[in-house]
FAD-dependent oxidoreductase (Mesorhizobium abyssinicae), 428 residues
Amino acid sequence: MNPTSISGTAAMQATTLRGRHNIRIAETRARAGALLEQGAAFMHLEADALQATGSDPSSGDETRPALREEHVDVVVIGAGQNGLSVGYHLARKGVKFVILEGRERVGDIWRSRWDSLRLFTPARFDGLVGMPFPAARYSFPTKDEMADYLEAYARRFALPVRTGVNVDEVTRSGERYVVTSGQTRYIARHVVAAASSYQKPKIPDFAASFDPSIRQLHSVAYKNPEQLKAGGVLLVGASNSGAEIAMDVARTHQVWLSGRHPGHIPVAYNGYFAMRLVLPVVLRIVFHRLLTVDTPMGRRAKPEQLSHGLPLIRVKPQDLDAAGVRRVPRVAGARDGKPLLDGGQLLDVANIIWCTGFRAGLDWIKLPIFDDTGRVKQYRGAVEGEPGLYVCGLHFQHSTSSTMIHGAARDAGYVADKIGERMRAAAG
């Protein structure tokens, strides 16, 4: 998420935890595991549903209806800031394309986030190409304002977004890619997976060993403190989302925040000096131009950011202290049904919120594009060994800013340019 970073109808189900008091980790995984982030247009379907697509089991007719085919130049998967940005550039090039979005409305990925969420960057950095964000330049938009902005952006530029379309898989047939969604196959020479890095929430295996009376949920399912049981709350993961949720929960609960401090921007985020000098330098120069895969500094920073996230942008350590949030070492495992910290301390808490990040969850791309760690082999969005296949929205796709709004816009422009070059070469 633009610090952003969290699609498919399964995400909506995963957030309906309010009022339930005995949610086990198995349920948390079952609900959270199918989630997709930042406008992704894919939702894992149950095997039974896949086998039964188009068939009425009671009729005894096992014949599936013929797949409908649609041919386009480009299929963009996901109508978040990444997919819409790609669409904007493709439209200006006169390319025939379609954007597939799993949710019912553009922007729903933002609407589903926790109630108090505001973007971590000021509005001046939150607009996409061709349409500034309609808010005071130094304000921090709410999640719903961002959602409405994306919806308005798609409408203003008449982008061909099809909502409620869940992608089952992407395969190759000869020189063309096949994007399958239910009974429809989209045939294209170019596919852009604009599903970002926020798809499958990560929850460690030892979470299943905690006492079943402890309420556990991933940050993607958190909405507000009313979901939580009375008693202490442990947040696992101390990056931006963890710190922000800790501040929200601390209004009503005792909070422990576990994990290594990722560092922070050492100025007040809402001060005149920070807004007009520090943040522009950090966001537009350091994150956008210095820390990239093309610089030695960026290549050194990339593994650290992939593992531990960005420095805190808005919340500072003193803010956490003032709110009564207690900082503790990382959670090493479970003992006697309780969280075990590095150093041997056990915490007796009633709730755990996992702010432990996401897996890319791109296994619906049925092509050999992943390295040994499961990450896509790509340079600036162009996938290695698969001409015509692109990604947008990955962590550090090109730079630290790649998962921020302004970084997504730049990465999308690069991908669209590469598609244009490839189309011209094929036509020439």
About this structure: Confidence is low (pLDDT under 50) at residues 1-61. DSSP finds eleven helices and 20 strands in the chain.
